[in-house]
Write a structure and sequence with these properties.
The chain is of the alpha/beta class. 32% of the residues lie in helices and 25% in strands. The protein contains 14 helices and 18 strands. The chain has a 9-stranded mixed β-sheet with strand order 2-1-3-4-9-8-7-5-6, sandwiched between helices. It has a 5-stranded parallel β-sheet with strand order 12-11-10-13-14, with helices on both faces. Helix 6 (222-235) packs across helix 11 and helix 13 runs antiparallel to helix 14. The two termini are 43 Å apart. Bound molecules: xanthosine-5'-monophosphate (XMP). Residues 292, 341, 385, 387-389, 429, 463, 500, 504-506 line the site of xanthosine-5'-monophosphate. Catalyzes the synthesis of GMP from XMP. Homodimer.
């Protein structure tokens, strides 16, 4: 595997993803991680990430000595390169100008790591400091207009430094450079595949759980589904899945979860129909945050009640992903995080579970690959994200059974038409919102007075920012006609053209 030592760059996590895309296992660890943390990891190389500091400042973060004593190949990126230069006897100083944005690198004909690249190629720069004097043993192999040493290396020791960022898409050949380091220099094999992951993970779960019993909360989303199937492969009937049906799911969704898990996968599934309980809690509530709190609390209460019925359960399986682990800052210590939505972390103190988190080292796209390899249905593997509070936050104002039913019908039409148009996978999320506004319309010879439905469809790489999807007008027209004609109580459809920010994806 490859270890990335994190000096705080916003791109650190991307480096780990890129290495994994080369089918080589990679972990992102704090820069000052003790060597013992790497025991048993079969580390073949180290990457020092970028970061916001300047190496010549007092107290600037540096690589621990064990990095230089290990004999392993090291790649320094941006600040990581400056750390390397500084610690190995070179000189780093503030550059005359900050170099930020695109640049063209010109390489010497035999530059290590740049095998297979053209003489000039585009890169992304983001740094203020630059290397003035190379450390002993190093040579410069490529430059830009502003950086005489865009690439430095001492190939005899396996030390390489890049002033630019190979991990971002703005460095189009960056992946080739990383491949040259990971596969070429480090000789790390591309054995990190879904098949191997499944095999190793199933073994690890068996070792952890032994003959104990495991509980797993299912939401219908891909993370909890993949986690549950992995645990099921490991312990079979010792897994009990609890699916809390809050009555706030989309049309057909609860049935789909039950069929997939019980019939197709033969997994022990407790289907709790708690719609009444949730709706009672939501009566007369219009404030979005109050809705969230009520739903969250009710979920914990229902889940607890069902979990207590599972005798001898000592383990709780959660679909925690790697970004959650890293964001919570627990990746150095091996501590556990609990996802805030579907907040099982709110279980009472006397219900102590040991967590089983088979996905805690995976990114979302990797979870999907594993889901496919496990044979989960496409609809589940590629399902759009769906909020824990479900349709309650897409039903503006008070949530009632009647309004939920209207929303479900409209939403189903939106989804069917988008699937039919082959656009489902191009979108981050798409759905209908039932506004709290009634408007006047005309149908045949009659005046109507009904709800306005909003259609929301967004594209995004993650949910931090999003843009409204430029859906074809023909598709929007079909969606609008069908909703007004087929959904009783709705006489108007609008399309939401607000990006995030300033809008959010959901309306509440
Ligand atoms: P917003 O609306 O904030 O949503 O742009 C960003 C992403 O988060 C989802 N979302 C939620 N997920 N519980 C969840 O589990 C929530 O309360 C919640 N609110 C929003 C939303 O669907 C989008 O993917």
């Amino acid at each position: 595997s490859i270890v990335v030592l994190d000096f705080g760059s916003q791109f650190s996590m991307l480096i780990a993803r890129r290495v994994r895309e080369l089918n080589t296992y990679c972990e992102l660890l704090p820069y000052d991680v003790p060597r013992e943390r790497l025991a048993g990891m079969d580390v073949r190389g180290i990457i020092l990430s970028g970061g916001p500091n300047s190496v010549y400042e007092e107290g600037a973060p540096l690589a621990p000595d064990w990095v230089w004593e290990s004999g392993l190949p090291v790649l320094g990126i941006c600040y990581g390169m400056q750390v390397m230069a500084h610690q190995l006897g070179g000189q780093v100083a503030p550059g005359a100008e900050r170099e930020y944005g695109p640049a063209v690198v010109h390489r010497d004909h035999a530059a290590p790591l740049l095998d297979g690249l053209p003489a000039d190629f585009e890169v992304w720069m983001s740094h203020g400091d630059r290397i003035e004097v190379l450390p002993p043993g190093f040579a410069g192999y490529a430059s830009t207009a502003n950086s005489p040493f865009a690439v430095m290396a001492d190939p005899s020791r396996g030390y390489y430094g890049l002033q630019f960022h190979p991990e971002v898409v703005h460095t189009p050949r960056g992946k080739d450079i990383l491949r040259n380091f990971v596969h070429g220099v480090c000789g790390a094999q591309g054995t990190w595949t879904p098949g191997n992951f499944i095999e190793e993970t199933v073994e690890a779960i068996r070792a952890q759980v032994g003959s104990g019993r495991v509980i797993c909360g299912l939401s219908g989303g891909v993370d909890s589904a993949v986690a549950a199937v992995l645990v099921h492969r490991a312990v079979g009937d010792h897994l009990v899945c609890i699916f809390v049906d809050n009555g706030l799911l989309r049309a057909g969704e609860a049935e789909e979860v039950v069929t997939t898990f019980r019939k197709n996968l033969a997994i022990n599934l407790v289907h709790v129909d708690a719609a009444e309980e949730f709706l009672a809690q939501l009566a007369e509530v219009t404030n979005p945050e109050t809705k969230r709190v009520r739903i969250g609390n009710t979920f914990v209460r229902v889940f607890e009640r069902e979990a207590r019925k599972v005798e001898g359960a000592r383990f709780l399986c959660q679909g925690t992903l790697y970004p959650d682990v890293i964001e919570s800052g627990s990746h150095g210590k091996g501590a556990s995080t609990i996802k805030t939505h579907h907040n099982v972390g709110g279980l009472p103190a006397d219900m102590k579970f040991e967590l089983v988190e088979p996905l805690r080292y995976l990114f979302k796209d990797e979870v999907r690959r594993i889901g496919e390899a496990l044979g989960l249905p496409d609809e589940m593997v590629w399902r759009h994200p769906f909020p824990g509070p479900g349709l309650a936050i897409r039903c503006i104002g008070e949530v009632t059974r009647e309004k939920l039913e209207i929303l479900r019908r409209a939403d189903r039409i939106v989804m069917d038409e988008i699937r039919e148009a082959g656009l489902y996978r191009d979108l981050w999320q798409a759905f209908a919102v039932l506004t709290d506004t009634k408007t006047v319309g005309v149908m045949g010879d009659f005046r109507t007075y009904g709800y306005a439905v909003a259609v929301r469809a967004v594209v995004a790489d993650d949910a931090m920012t999003a843009d409204w999807a430029r859906l074809p007008h023909e598709l929007l027209s079909r969606i609008s006609n069908r909703i007004v004609n087929e959904v009783h109580g709705v006489n108007r459809v609008v399309y939401d053209i607000t990006p995030k920010p300033p809008g959010t994806i959901e309306w509440e």
